[in-house]
Amino acid sequence: xxxxxxxxxxxxxxxxxxxxxxxxxxxxxxxxxxxxxxxxxxxxxxxxxxxxxxxxxxxxxxxxxxxxxxxxxxxxxxxxxxxxxxxxxxxxxxxxxxxxxxxxxxxxxxxxxxxxxxxxxxxxxxxxxxxxxxxxxxxxxxxxxxxxxxxxxxxxxxxxxxxxxxxxxxxxxxxxxxxxxxxxxxxxxxxxxxxxxxxxxxxxxxxxxxxxxxxxxxxxxxxxxxxxxxxxxxxxxxxxxxxxxxxxxxxxxxxx
Length: 256
Prior knowledge:
Blueprint (H helix, E strand, L loop, with lengths): L4 E4 L11 H9 L2 E4 L3 E5 L2 H6 L9 E4 L2 H13 L9 E4 L2 H6 L10 E4 L4 H8 L7 E6 L4 H9 L4 E11 L12 E4 L2 H10 L9 E5 L1 H9 L6 E3 L7 H21 L1
Helix pairs in contact: 1-9, 7-8
């Protein structure tokens, strides 16, 4: 099957020409559309308390996304909880760390960050075992992350502060795409909520992260392009490798 139309279940980049998907589109003459499959909703202070969560008693916070940053400071404001200057911030990436400038004076805070994945950040966390960590998360958290924290006996508390709900995709012609790309279990839930009779057929599915892969398999769907891998640490690279290999196969068959 010739791949021409791809749907990415994320918002469109501000400048797609400078994104990895812009390069993919140009390299393989692809039409790549973007659509946000999930919407983020903050959990109220009342619900946060009802779930027996608390911001008290922590010396550090682990932030894995901008959503986590936004909702951490939102819930603190709603709870009228003053965040101490001594609180340490451990961020999944440098960009997430810099995003903290929206809420704190960056240079006056103790901020640490990984390269891009949680395994990198974990190496930093292991050097700070004396801290008591809060991990703000969604209602569908990254289970792999918590398994790693447990394995390393990191002293943490999970605090659910936002939830993911399916976006309205009723206007979307899902079958016109040769490939769908997912990045979270929430995206899979949205697909099945919006299209309860969905059948994969010949449609290719790419999935980033073990929890997304598991959600697809649990739904009885086939993951054609898993990421990250050692050869392809990003989704764009995984797709590039897949299409390149398929084109090589076509050329080899045409020579016979």
